[in-house]
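Subject: Sanity check before I submit

Could someone independently write out the structure tokens for this chain? I want to compare against mine line by line before I put it in a report. The sequence has 394 residues.
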Amino acid sequence: MGSSKKTFKRLFNVIIALVIGYFVIYGLAAISKNSKGPLGGLLENMSDMVQDFERDNILEKREQNREKKLSWFKDQRKNKFALLKTKYILFGASDDSKGESYENIINLEDSLALTFPIIHIYKAWGEGQEYKFPENEVNAIHRIGSIPMITWEPWFGKFSQENFPKIKAPEQRDNHGLTAVAEGHYDAYIKEWAKETAKLDYPIYLRVGHEMNDPYRYPWGPQNNDPSEYVAFFKHVREVFDEVGATNVIWVWSPHLTYGKFKEYYPGTDYVDVVATGALNYGTSTSWSDWWTFEQIFGNYYEQLASFYKPIMIAEFGSLKPGGSRAKWFGDTFENFYTKYPYVTSIVFFHYSSDPSTTYKAVSWYIKDDQEVTTAIKDELKKWDPSIKQPDMK
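---
Independent answer below. Compare away.
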């Protein structure tokens, strides 16, 4: 009994000492902030370490809690065919998160009372460490209970002729660049990704060369390649993956809605697992856009997408503020959603705080702090048929 009391007392004293030390460090660091000497710098570093430790601890607990919320998804996420036949609409997001932390996405989940089975990242083609298969990122996504989705963009400028001797000079590379891929000129790079993918014991979504029918945005578009060249490109990439045993890939084909010609660009039912597209409302933020409803952006093309008889993914989903009510836009979108769009099985929020990719200045797609928007979304999701709601949706 006496021994237990002594142990408790020592433990109590250690905790008190740690708490006091914590506040001393914060206080001294604050005093030293404007006049850093060696001691001030040390104390400030210690203060930063304490804050980092706190943040990492809190994030780790949130990640563990998140994995529990996705327990219903645990078996499904191991099976490519179960994912393709899911009876639920699987939500997801992509955002400014870098590296191995997806804290921003977890914050969005909290604001929507959702947990995302899909987390989406973008990766460009190229030579060097930056362009290798993102093993750490996909493993981090899997660790917190979700399926990784990668949009893999075939930019050709970051390859050397020394290591890829068949490729053209940089200034000529985009012209019919997809044919060069289909002819095997980039096979060493593709095989590298395929082998790393094959090592995973879970599926990933791979969205290759998206918006290939848009003549303005990407160099793999119709300004440089015919539809038949894109089809040959997509087929070849999949065949390389299949040859090395990377059969855990869910192949996502993703045209741009505005520019049509869907069937001309379709690689075929044996090569495509999921048909995807973007549904982004730019409102009046640009000279070429207006306040368009989800029905105008996506609904008018739904029957064409459904004609492929594949699961449909909305791979980039969001609305900017200028031009109308975002809350109404999202609310109207989710009203009777599954009745109107039964082939849609996944919706991925495009949630970037600073996106300079299309407009002349960076714009924000963030909704996590817009209570009117998040409330409108939650209110509509509550009305959904339980048979297609994710089990963790409240």
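---
OP: Matches mine. For the report I'm noting this point. The longest strand covers residues 274-281.
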